[in-house]
Amino acid sequence: MNDNEKGIAYMLLSSLFFALMAGTVKFLGEIPLAEKIFFRNLIGMFIAAYMIRKNGSSIKANNIKMVLFRSLFGVLSIAAYFYGISQLKMADAVILNKISPFFIIVLAAVFLKEEIGKPQMAALAFAVVGAVFVIKPRFDASIVPALVTLSSGILAGTAYTILRYLRKSDSADTIVFYFCGFSTLVSIPFMILGKFVVPTANEMLALFAVGVFGVVAQFFVTNAYRLVPAGEVSIYAYSNIIFSALIGIFLFSEIPDILSIFGGSVIILAGFINFQAGRKKKKKAGLERKKRLSSQAS
Fold this sequence. Notes:
Number of domains: 1
Largest sheet: none
Radius of gyration: 19 Å
Structural class: mainly alpha
């Protein structure tokens, strides 16, 4: 498999495991948010440490400042997302979280100097329209969970853009280790100051599963964004919506309403527009490079 094929496969697998993680978080119900984040990342930290040892990666980050920034935005995104899952239908929470690739477009253009074209701007506009249909704004307190969940997508977009920046300085194993370690430490004060619930045997097993599903998904998505430009691979992240909707329907009897289905479809369409724009841009760059090499040879 070439890098593009590997990147696509990694993104599809990450979407499946993220959906499994979301379903397990939903199952945990009344377990406090900080507790879910703590166990999700504590387990992930040990798995990441094992992967560092197995793959011979360095446990020391080369660009520690940006790795910590990635970790900060990552844990804020997870907190907002877990909150959204507990308050909204699973499909709605995932749709709003999947706004992240469109913020990657903007952030990659600003910070990574990646070109942004008219089709990508149109995709961003479609994504915003789709999000409005999912949120169904009523301008009262009921809108808060949807807005918090939407912010998880913005924060995730920032974290993934930093991943793209880190691809030449730090390994995926090292980045995941720091992210999980940072998130574990940050969640401890909130667990101490908040209400700690002693989990039952089933809840303990579910908390362990959240950690395993989350870190496996994190490894896959980290490698996907390292191998393939964000604008080209992000379309495959929308398979998470399908996986999560199916879990919501079959396990929690959550049937998405017509507005959410329409809004989700618009966001997926926006993702396809963005994906096609990325392919055309890559093809054009390849032709220009080939033409330039041909002229140099002659």
